Amino acid sequence: MTIIFLIFSLAALIVAFILDGGHVEGLLSPTAAMIVVGGTIGATGVTIPLDILKNTGKLIVIAMGSRKTNLIDLIKYFNELSIKARKEGLLALESDMNAEGVDPFIRNGISLAVDGTNPELIKSIMETQIEQISKRHKSQIQIFESAGGYAPTMGILGTVMGLVHVLSNLDNAGELGHQIATAFLATMYGIGTANILWLPFGGKLKALDAAEMKEKMMIMEAVLSITSGDNPQVMVQKLKVFLDPKTLKQFEAAEGGESA
């Protein structure tokens, strides 16, 4: 859907331009693109450390996708662990902890519980892990926020450079209109890339970060509840707080179906 909406926004702008009497070739200017793209990459490279900047390609791929997390399945998973821990003790969860495909964050939390770590210490450790993950995400999101800030400025700079060139060659008055229009393409490229690419990518990554943080908080709450020996149904009630209204209805409907 990200790709579809990206194409839709570009198509809407180009079609509107054509309907207004413009020609697609009139939107093309290699030199303006070079100024905006090159200037944006350079300024962003100065702002962001290289060890973070080198992940840009991977982050774009992530922004193009979506986070596949089923919170309902996560609640059911922890409900089973809680029932098992109540019946057989925390040590019985060791096999589940080492099972293939288990989220490392879940594995770390369950490992602390199995080792008999104090619940307050478990909470402190997991909160620190969540905080560090969030900080890493924010530093990566800054790549796109910085690019979104620099691109329009580079566009204006490109337009000014173009106008300087135009004003220094006033001999051919018949070409002034075309040259001025070409100069303003840099501003269009700068504003366009900022608001169609960089800032939306940053916004998408923020949304994915928020979803992951909610998932991590739910996992922490579940681990603490299991460690404290809470009744499984009490734990489920705690975890349901993390569900949005639509997902909560789906969960309750599934619960009702299982009870029937």
Number of strands: 0
Global structural class: mainly alpha
Gyration radius, in Å: 27 Å
Number of domains as seen in the coordinates: 1
Quick check: average pLDDT? 88
Give your account of this protein's structure.
There is one protein chain. This protein has 260 residues and is an all-alpha fold. The protein has one domain (53-239). Helices cover 80% and strands 0% of the residues. It has eleven helices and no strands. It has helices at residues 2-19, 30-47, 50-53, 56-64, 71-88, 94-97, 104-114, 119-167, 176-227, 232-240, 245-259. The longest helix has 52 residues, at 176-227. The model has no long low-confidence stretch (mean pLDDT 88).
Brief account:
The protein has 260 residues and is an all-alpha fold.
Give a quick set of tags describing it.
single chain, about 260 residues, mainly alpha, about 80% helix
SSE blueprint:
Elements: H1 2-19, H2 30-47, H3 50-53, H4 56-64, H5 71-88, H6 94-97, H7 104-114, H8 119-167, H9 176-227, H10 232-240, H11 245-259
Helix pairs in contact: 2-8, 2-9, 4-9, 5-9, 5-10, 7-8, 7-9, 8-9, 9-10
